[in-house]
Amino acid sequence: MSSHLERIDHKGKHILYFDFSDLFGEEYLQTLNEVKDFILDLQQDDLLLLVNVSQTYADKKILMQYNEIGKQIKSSVAKVAVIGVSKTQDVFLSMINLVTGVDAKTFPSFDEAKEWLIE
């Protein structure tokens, strides 16, 4: 799997941490596809995801890819927390949530996101 994935154990729960920070363009698209394939290959329905989008740039292609991936992985995911979200990204995340039904939540810190995921 990609170097952008880390498995975190937090208070007895398993969290998949995807660090997309500083990605853009084709590398970002490729990483998103790797993540989608990884999640689908797990064949689970209770995954906890923590996604870092700090310093990323999402163009139209990337936003469309997020929409498609969200639809495909929705049944695999119990909760999604997102950190590093700018005001512009927050608007895009709201649209992605609406289209996919994933209902990802934003948090100001890594620790707050982890705590919410395990509630």
Task: Please provide a brief summary of the model.
46% of the residues lie in helices and 24% in strands. By secondary structure, it is an alpha/beta fold.
Describe the model:
The protein is α/β, with parallel strands linked by helices and 119 residues long. The protein has one domain (5-118): 2-Layer Sandwich (Transcription Regulator spoIIAA). 46% of the residues lie in helices and 24% in strands. The chain has 4 helices and 5 strands, in the order ββαβαβαβα. The chain has helices at 25-42, 60-73, 87-100, 110-118, and strands at residues 5-10, 13-19, 47-52, 77-83, 105-107. The chain has a 5-stranded mixed β-sheet, covered by helices on one side. Helix 1 runs parallel beside helix 2. It is globular and about 40 Å long. The model has no long low-confidence stretch (mean pLDDT 94).
Top-tier CATH class:
Alpha Beta
The number of helical runs is 4
**Strand line-up in the sheet with most strands:** 1-2-3-4-5
Query: CATH homologous superfamily?
Result: STAS domain
Structural class: alpha/beta
Summary tags:
4 helices; alpha/beta; globular; single chain; 119 residues; Transcription Regulator spoIIAA
